[in-house]
Write a structure and sequence with these properties.
globular; TIM Barrel; binds phosphoenolpyruvate; single chain; alpha/beta; 12 helices
């Protein structure tokens, strides 16, 4: 059985002081949940403080992006060894990076390889836009993003990768995909691709998060689906009570699934 992985993407929110306060509110509650992996991805500036506060709490810490070069003349960028000093994982290919900062499937692949080379776990984000969805292109788009984004990655390296399926039209809109529609993409497009690329055994172990307007109200229904292995949470990760409720929903679903299997 795959362990749920629920990660909060704080995006460009929270000053250092606000980030510390949020971790202060999250950690006592999250410390009581040991059957779900949970994580936060603050801004670069808040990372040192957050990483320090999360040490020993079980909360994993990630960055929201990284450059692929090890060092050099890339003003404003952050290199993989710098991220690896503080973080357990990094997010690459978020649709906001693709939309506002011109990131491509090719540069996602470069970032992924560079992150794996320094020992980071990686969340690779994929997902179709509204126009692509309405044109019936979801499968083609997601498959292309996976083909190029995961190019030249070995089965062993894949152990460090989580896929986040985030339909762009669902991010920050309050309009989540239905559990059935999301699971259809996870189960019938992404998992088969992972099987083909990395083999049956690895594909069964890899986690596929859903992201896009996950809230305490819809989390349990989403997580109860066969191939939704957690969530990448934006807006609802900024408030302690809603992020805690979403992690608790994953924990409850995990208990029910465990019981039904034994
Ligand atoms: C995200 O930023 O990855 C995201 C899914 O945002 P939200 O939960 O706010 O839709």
């Amino acid at each position: 059985m795959r362990r749920f992985f629920v990660a909060g993407n704080w995006k460009m929110n929270k000053t250092i002081a606000e980030a510390k306060a949020l971790i202060g509110a999250l950690s006592p509650e999250l410390a009581t949940i040991d059957n779900v992996d949970h994580a936060v991805a603050p801004s670069y500036l808040a990372l040192p403080a957050v990483a320090g506060l999360c040490k020993g709490t079980g909360i994993k810490v990630g960055a929201q992006n990284l450059h692929w070069e090890t060092a050099g003349a890339y003003t404003g960028e952050v290199a993989p060894p710098m991220v690896a000093e503080l973080c357990d994982f990094v997010i690459v290919g978020h649709s906001e990076r693709r939309k506002f900062f011109g990131e491509t499937d090719e540069s996602v692949n470069q970032r992924l390889k560079a992150a794996l080379a320094v020992g980071l776990d990686v969340i690779v984000c994929i997902g179709e836009t509204l126009e692509e969805n309405e044109a019936g292109q979801t499968e083609a788009v997601v498959t292309r993003q996976l083909e190029v984004g995961l190019a030249e990655i070995s089965e062993t390296q894949a152990a460090a990768i989580t896929i986040a399926y985030e339909p762009v039209w669902a991010i920050g809109t309050g309009r989540a995909a239905t559990p059935e529609d999301a699971n259809n993409v996870h189960k019938n497009v992404i998992r088969p691709f992972l099987r083909e690329q990395f083999g049956e055994a690895r594909a069964e172990l890899m986690r596929i998060q859903y992201g896009g307007s996950v809230t305490p109200d819809n989390a349990a229904e989403l997580f109860a689906m066969s191939d939704i292995d957690g969530g990448l949470i934006g807006g609802a990760s900024l408030k302690p009570e809603s992020f805690i409720a979403i992690v608790k929903a994953a924990s409850m679903v995990a208990i029910v699934q465990q019981e039904s299997q034994s």
